[in-house]
Amino acid sequence: MPVPASFNDITQDPSLENYIGWVWYEKEVQLPLRWLQDDLNTRVVLRFGSAHYYSIVWVNGVQVMEHEGGHLPFEADISSIIQGSPGIPCRITVALNNTLTPHTLPPGSIQYMNDKTRYPKNYFVQNIRFDFFNYAGIHRPVVLYTTPSVYIDDITVTTTSSESVAMVQYQVSVVGSTLYSLSLSLRDQEGKVVATGDGPSGELKVLNPNLWWPYLMHENPGYRYSLEVKMQAQANGALLEDVYTLPVGIRTIHVTSTQFLINGRPFYFHGVNKHEDADIRGKGFDWPLVVKDFNLLRWLGANSFRTSHYPYAEEIMDLCDAYGIVVIDECPGVGIKMSESFGNKSLQHHLVVMEELIRRDKNRPSVVMWSVANEPASELPPAGYYFKTVIAHTKALDPSRPVTFVTDANYALDHGAPYVDVICVNSYFSWYHDPGHLEVIPLQLTTQFENWYKTYQKPIIQSEYGADSVPGLHSDPPLMFSEEYQKAMLREYHSVFDKKRKEYVIGELIWNFADFMTNQGTTRVLGNKKGIFTRQRQPKSAAFVLRERYWKIANESSCLPPIIKSHALFLK
Ligand code: GCB
């Protein structure tokens, strides 16, 4: 089985496609001798970018870690197992289980079908309440890396700035000894040192800073300084040195009752929702696909996306930082519908997942807001305490960013909305409601916005809207599933956005960037077809409508001279 990849679509075996339960991976690697014997001050770490969902890992038969949940990294120090026996290969064994329970994220449940007249013995299905195929496997790269035995374990950076001076606050944690020294230097993109510091925490002052700006908001978006953190320690009679270089974007975020400000300027999210999804590889990380998608975002004039409905690969996040693509970073809290999923056990796990996500992404300038869930049953009374707690925990871990969750509940019944900074609302007027009736959109969408704003006086993002279209299916007048219908639906939504973005609507994210695989069902034709691109990344007619719109908005709101599409300020 290739890694990284989902295992589901790789073979011709239909039972693997929908397999639920344990799978095993094993690989032997030969490690460099110097890791094993020459230098016992070397710490060897085994790291998984992500694996779905519950993982147990052994090295040479010794269990080294277990981890609950996909989409986030986990790692273990394996030095004590491999050191001292040079010449023996390092055997890595992984057991993965993709069974979901009411307390996992996302939640799910196993249902045994006990009617012997209709189902074979022990027949069961896994019920999920989310709309993407539940791919499983080792989805992201697995690496072995080394550090000295005293090492930099974590760095946290936050930034504040005015026009002429910025402050970079840092905190460094070192593990392995209390006797160490730390020196820091911040370099600009020319390599010039602009500030220096020492010690585990402090502040660096940057005069006339180059701020991190979103794509299409500045002629040099995604500007990042390099923070070099150097640690020196004495251990076992040797001088140990660990150096880590962290890209740092200087930018500020503020939310008012009507605006989302980046560096003090109003930011309008004109972007997409995505999925990690593709033919054959499923959710497996794939560089060509990732780079293709960034080129399509650039072409589209999209300045943002939401990581619907789980954290995306770190490599993708790196590109967002570098190109200035603004991210709403969502945890895997999707399909929280059962009342058991609002209990203490689920809540504790949700808090841990937020800790893992924030630890991974806290230093990313592209991440401007955390989303703790998508379309939970937030009208259930326990949702109030649940979201109050998850959001308070998230804010305590990271006071620098606003927090939201994405709702499709009725504005008057939503128990989680009081705790969010920005209202993110999904609606599918003329699709799931009043199918075929495009003419209801203006009234229903206007009412939706007005109700939410009247109740909360918080800015609103239309975090999903869309219609399926089967590429190549045409109909005039527009009928559902044709490319014309998808375009017509977009235009109806856009006319309302254009009125309300003058007031308090701060963004629109199409559902979805590309078609993606789902469970089989009577409303899905080889997956969800709400993409403006096909699963193979070819544009449908709707992509051109959106492209015209996004470039128009970018030119209206930019302080720059008109930006010509062919000279997009991207991928320089
Ligand atoms: C939604 C969900 C999204 C689905 C979409 C649809 O509200 O958030 O995951 O794929 O609707 O197309 O049904």
List keywords for this structure.
alpha/beta; Immunoglobulin-like; TIM Barrel; eight-stranded parallel barrel; 10 helices; 27 strands; globular; EC 3.2.1.31; lysosome; glycosidase; signal; hydrolase
Our count of helices gives 10
The third-level CATH topology of the largest domain is TIM Barrel
State the share of residues found in helices, binned by percent: 10-25%
CATH superfamily of the largest domain: Glycosidases
Strand content: 25-35%
What's the architecture of the largest domain, going by CATH? Answer: Alpha-Beta Barrel
Small molecules (ligands, ions, cofactors) in the structure? (2S,3S,4S,5R)-3,4,5-trihydroxy-6-oxo-oxane-2-carboxylic acid
Total DSSP E strands: 27
Largest sheet, in brief, is:
8 strands, parallel, barrel
Shape: globular
- The first-level CATH class of the largest domain is given as Alpha Beta
Low-confidence stretches: none
Biggest sheet strand order reads 20-21-22-23-24-25-26-27
Alpha-carbon Rg, integer: 25 Å
Q: Which structural class should the secondary elements be placed in? A: alpha/beta
Which secondary structure elements does this structure contain, and how are they paired or packed?
Elements: H1 14-17, E1 22-29, H2 33-38, E2 42-48, E3 54-59, E4 62-68, E5 74-77, H3 79-82, E6 90-97, E7 108-112, E8 124-128, E9 142-148, E10 151-161, E11 165-175, E12 180-187, E13 193-198, E14 201-207, E15 225-235, E16 238-248, E17 253-255, E18 260-262, E19 265-266, E20 269-273, H4 287-300, E21 304-306, H5 314-323, E22 326-330, H6 344-361, E23 367-374, H7 382-397, E24 403-407, E25 423-426, H8 441-456, E26 460-464, H9 483-500, E27 505-510, H10 541-557
Parallel strand pairs: 20-21, 20-27, 21-22, 22-23, 23-24, 24-25, 25-26, 26-27
Antiparallel strand pairs: 1-6, 2-5, 2-9, 3-4, 3-6, 7-8, 10-11, 11-14, 12-13, 12-15, 15-16, 17-18, 18-19
Helix pairs in contact: 6-7, 8-9, 9-10
The chain binds (2S,3S,4S,5R)-3,4,5-trihydroxy-6-oxo-oxane-2-carboxylic acid (GCB).
Domain Glycoside hydrolase family 2 immunoglobulin-like beta-sandwich: 150-251
Function: Plays an important role in the degradation of dermatan and keratan sulfates.
Protein name: Beta-glucuronidase
